[in-house]
Amino acid sequence: MKFFIDTANLAQIKEANELGILDGVTTNPSLMAKEGIKGTEAVMNHYKTICEMVDGDISAEVIATDFDGILEEGKKLAAIHPNIIVKVPMIKDGVKALKWFTDNGIKTNCTLVFSAGQAILAAKAGATYVSPFIGRIDDSGWDGVELIAQISQIYSIQGYKTQILAASIRSALHIVKCAEAGADVCTCPLDSILGLLKHPLTDIGLAKFLEDAKKTV
Ligand code: G3P
């Protein structure tokens, strides 16, 4: 399973990248706004900076919701860097645009996916990635990980090539459960990635080893 970081914060991207396990970055308009990035030029420059920092797929989201607008914006985003993945919402014109991008060699990430039916449409349109938002599904009383498992089973039966990118991750446990359920990628906040490191027995064991090591010098 690939690891992406889900942020537009450059310090966090740097920290995750330095761990040596980062395969890419996802962003969205909310994450860009959180970093105070304002104006089209600043947004484009921010994507460029991220592409220069991380050698992997970098998702950049379109704002337009009509077919022509999504195409125009997606082409501009794709021109920033060869690693840009154009992020398109799961709406009718979005599906049409996904197919156009697929036919024209532009890689895509279909975002705001909350059902298996939507994931089938994204795959049919040839999306490179499909992003089910598992944390938001859990928030509304459904089971996000179960959706990952269902999509994984459907894609395997049908031979769809679209990669399942589990998004809206809230914890280290989500990452483990998504790996188990067949996600190809998990895009996570830095805290959830670092959460994977933690186990009290590791801390206790290390303290004991260091204490005993003093007896050997
Ligand atoms: O990038 C999309 C997704 O990961 C958003 O997560 O935490 O806003 O539900 P969240």
Overview in brief:
With about 220 residues, the chain is of the alpha/beta class. It has helices spanning about 10-20, 30-35, 40-55, 65-80, 90-105, 115-125, 135-140, 145-160, 170-180, 190-195, 200-215, and strands at about 1-5, 25, 55-60, 85-90, 110-115, 130, 165, 185-190.
Mind explaining what this structure looks like?
The structure is a single chain. The chain is of the alpha/beta class. The chain has 11 helices and 8 strands. An 8-stranded parallel beta barrel has the order 1-2-3-4-5-6-7-8, surrounded by 7 helices. Helix 6 (116-124) packs parallel to helix 8 and helix 8 packs parallel to helix 9. The longest helix is centred in the last third of the chain and has 16 residues, at 200-215. The radius of gyration is 19 Å and the shape is globular. The protein starts with a strand and ends with a helix. Bound molecules: SN-glycerol-3-phosphate. SN-glycerol-3-phosphate binds at residues 6, 26, 28, 133, 135-136, 167-168, 187. SN-glycerol-3-phosphate (G3P) binds next to helix 7.
Gyration radius over CA:
19 Å
Helix content: 40-55%
Bound molecules: SN-glycerol-3-phosphate
Q: How much strand?
A: 15-25%
What is the tally of beta strands?
Answer: 8
Which secondary structure elements does this structure contain, and how are they paired or packed?
Elements: E1 2-6, H1 10-18, E2 24-26, H2 29-34, H3 40-53, E3 57-61, H4 67-78, E4 84-89, H5 92-103, E5 108-113, H6 116-124, E6 129-132, H7 134-139, H8 144-158, E7 163-166, H9 172-181, E8 185-188, H10 190-195, H11 200-215
Parallel strand pairs: 1-2, 1-8, 2-3, 3-4, 4-5, 5-6, 6-7, 7-8
The structure holds SN-glycerol-3-phosphate.
